[in-house]
Amino acid sequence: MAYSPKPAGPRSIRELFHYLWRELTEIGIEIGEGGGGSSDHDDLTNVTSDQHHPQLHDLDSHTDVTAPTPSDTEVLTWDSGQWINAPSAGGLTRPGVREISTATYTVTASDETFLLLFTNAAGCVVTGPVSTSENLPVGFICHLHQEAAGEVEFVVEAGAATRTAIGLKTRVQYSSMSIIVQATDIYKIIGDVTP
């Protein structure tokens, strides 16, 4: 079978699946045509991995490449012609829980995905910073939970804005709201809130 150049690597899981399916189909055809059907190949002993093509290849040089194994907080991602380990984009890591007992609190980048339990009986005013004082990335999310009797109110520093359908305060004890950075200095508020 003649070698023909192949397109650059897959850009999605679907493309990877189709690519691997085509490769395995080609291997099956080659084996059926006598392209590797020796007794070694028939019983799968003394067979090199290149005879089966289970590994990934650099499609320009046809050299083997390895795909690094991602850790628990990473996902394997195709980027700029190579496989890389990238931080997961949420949903794959367990959020933390942090208790806040002060009457005021300013959100920081370390609060991302956290459930913040506010336990001050008199309540707490939580401030969303502007990007010049604490640059929270677009897509940042954290959850504010009123654990005590005092309400939790969300405010923003001058220069930032909020988007909410109802309000910026928790409604009753055990109410929660989530704050999401929708764009630079724009906070989306969702949850059990009141004006």
Folded structure, characterized:
- With 195 residues, the chain is an alpha/beta fold.
- It folds into two domains: 13-87, no CATH class; 97-194, Jelly Rolls (Sandwich), CATH 2.60.120.
- The protein has three helices and 15 strands.
- The radius of gyration is 27 Å and the shape is elongated.
Can you tag this structure with a few keywords?
195 residues; three-stranded parallel β-sheet; Jelly Rolls; 2 domains; alpha/beta; 3 helices
Query: How far apart are the first and last residues' alpha carbons, in Å?
Result: 71 Å
Mean pLDDT score, rounded? 77
What is the beta-strand fraction? 25-35%
Instruction: List low-pLDDT spans.
Output: 35-44, 49-55
As for the number of domains, it is 2
What is the topology, as strand order, of the major beta sheet? 5-7-9-13-14-11
Question: For the record, what CATH class of the largest domain applies?
Answer: Mainly Beta
Class from helix and strand fractions: alpha/beta
- Label the CATH architecture of the largest domain: Sandwich
How many strands in all?
15
SSE order, one letter for each helix or strand: HHHEEEEEEEEEEEEEEE
